[in-house]
Each structure stands twice: as structure tokens, then as C-alpha cells.
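Reviewers of the previous submission asked for a worked example of the structure-prediction workflow described in the proposal, so we include one complete record here. The input consisted solely of the amino acid sequence. No template or homolog information was supplied to the procedure at any stage.
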Amino acid sequence: MRILVVRLRQIGDVVFTTPAVAALRRRYPDAHLTYLVEPPGAPIVSNNPAIDEVLVVPPSRGLGGLIADLALGWRLRSRQYDLAIDFHGGPRASLLTWLSRATVRIGYDVAARSWMYTRIVPRPRELRRRHSVLNQWDLLAPLGIDLPTPDEFPVSMTIDEDAAARVQGRLSAAGVTRDEAIAVVHVSASSPFRRWPMPAFTATIAALASRPHRRVIVTSGPSDREAADGVIDAARSQLAAADRDRVVRCGDFSLTELRALLDRSSVYIGGDSGPLHVAATTGVPIVALFGPTPSERSAPWRSRAFPAELIEVDGLECRPCDQRVCTPGDFRCLTRIQPSQVIAAAERLLAGDAAVPRREPA
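From that input alone, the workflow returned the following C-alpha cells.
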């Protein structure tokens, strides 16, 4: 049997498919499983033991992109897949799934494209307080696969040993020792709807770094490196001269390097973005900040034995939202989260006081 899994675009959404991939491998242990993904999400699945082949396709733009996709579709068709599952549902993913001409093609009930699938799964249009792993898992229902639990089917990303060695070299070069606790603080997000204010990050980082035997490593996406450097400088300025090197400037980390860094870390702090979900593939304690998306949709999907603190603002009529326009204009779902809350949550985790995921309303 040959299976094609299609999930393009966002890193977090690729992470959210990994439980389903594990279930497919369990259901079809002898199948050849191909995962079709765009470059940003490729590191998530590139070493996944349940996947036989990862096809990385560049973003498609204009007429040239369409021609390339038609050629790709012809190659997919020549592989004679028995089953194709479109976990994305966007126009390009739908087209490639259809072009594969797999015997069984499963996808969501999407306007004007449902005809491309042989089995259609309803997808409610409203924003639901239901985890994204479960929303994507719905596509396995036609195969008779029962709903998962985080303990049985957690999100996953296999560690890259070369990346781990590079990370250890960078930590050693920065003077970080094995007896120091590392707090990783990720300060960027893909949109302003998920980005906590930089002054709030600065205050949090300075407070965490003020304690001995600790290092704070600030991470960001490449496009936010300048802002991250500004946060590092601002946090250091709030510390005594002797403590400033506790805020470590380590440069950019690739996704595979971030995954390795988190294995070495004592706590991760960040908003609802791809790196949060990479953190969820590890056992690192997590402080997660949720803006317009409720935690029920994007909380770390992993064993409850691994602690997490979920911080969000309750009681807002505008939340959740479609993340196109902030109606109040002040991003209050994030700006009302106070550094003191995040610091207290991180300190609890660093002290080992939280045993299971705990939700902390702002």
C-alpha cells in the first residue's frame, strides 16, 4: 500500500499532523508513506521514523508555479498511491491531492473543491474550542481510526544529532555550563495577533536572569533578529553588570537546533507559534501565552506528565477572532497578559511545583 500525506505551510500545523502520521503507521505497518510539505515545515518530519519519504516542494507562485505543480502532480500520479489525505485543505493542497489520482482521496468539505476528493469530511466554519490535532484527526475517521489521546499519540519531532552537537558547541562557546538552568524565551510570532509586546518580554527576561545559576537564551525567527537583539540589550541594561551575561546572545537557531536546545533546557516561554509546538515535542516545561486562539485549540499536545502553564485573557467578547482585524485595536488578548504572571509561572516550573498542564487566566 502507498499513502500520500499532504500538509503545506505553517510549522505548527505540520507538528499537529504527527500524531495522525503515527496512527497511520500503526494502522498500515507495511505501507510506504510519503509526506508532501513546503520548506518551513520540512524539518519537523524529515527524520520521523513513521515516514518513508519526505517530498519538499517550494512555494507556488504565478503561472510558473502552476506549471511546476502540474508537473509535480504527474510525478505523484506515476507513484500510484492507494490513499491520499489532504490535511491542509487549501487550493494548492487540494489540487495536488487530486492530481495524485490516488484511489482514495480524503479531504475537508471545502467550497468549490470537495469534488477533488473521493471521501469528504465535514469541517465546521465557526471557530471552535477544539484542539487542532483533533480537527485534523477527523480526516482519519473514514479509515476507522479512533480518536487519540495525547498520551498515546503525542506530537513528535525526532532530534537531529548533528544539530544537537552544534547547539552544545554554541552553549559551550557562550560559557553556559551543565549545572546552569536554561530558560528559552521565544520573542517572535508569525503575526501581530500572536506577538506579546517586546517590553513585556524584556521585563520577564530580566527577572528570570536576575537569579544565580541561570541563563536565558532569546530566540526568534530570522526576520525578527533585530527586535530580539533589542530585547537582549534592554534586558541586560536592567541587570547589574555582573549578571548581564546571564542573558545569552546565541544568534539564530534552525528548527532542528531549537529542538535540540529544548532538550537541554529547563523551561520554554513563548506565544502561540511554531516554536511552541516544537517545544511540545519535548518534555521541557512550557509557559504558553495565548492571544486570539484559545488554549483548547493549541495547547501542548503531549503527555500530561510534562508540566505546562497556559496563560490567556478570559472574558473578551472579541476572543476568539479570525485574526484579520483587531476590532478594539489594542490587541488586548495579549497586552493584558502581565509579565508578573509569566514570571510567576516560569518560577513555578523551574522550582518543579507544577506536575500537569495548568491553565492560568490573565
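The longest strand covers residues 32-37. We consider this example representative of the routine output the project will generate in years two and three.
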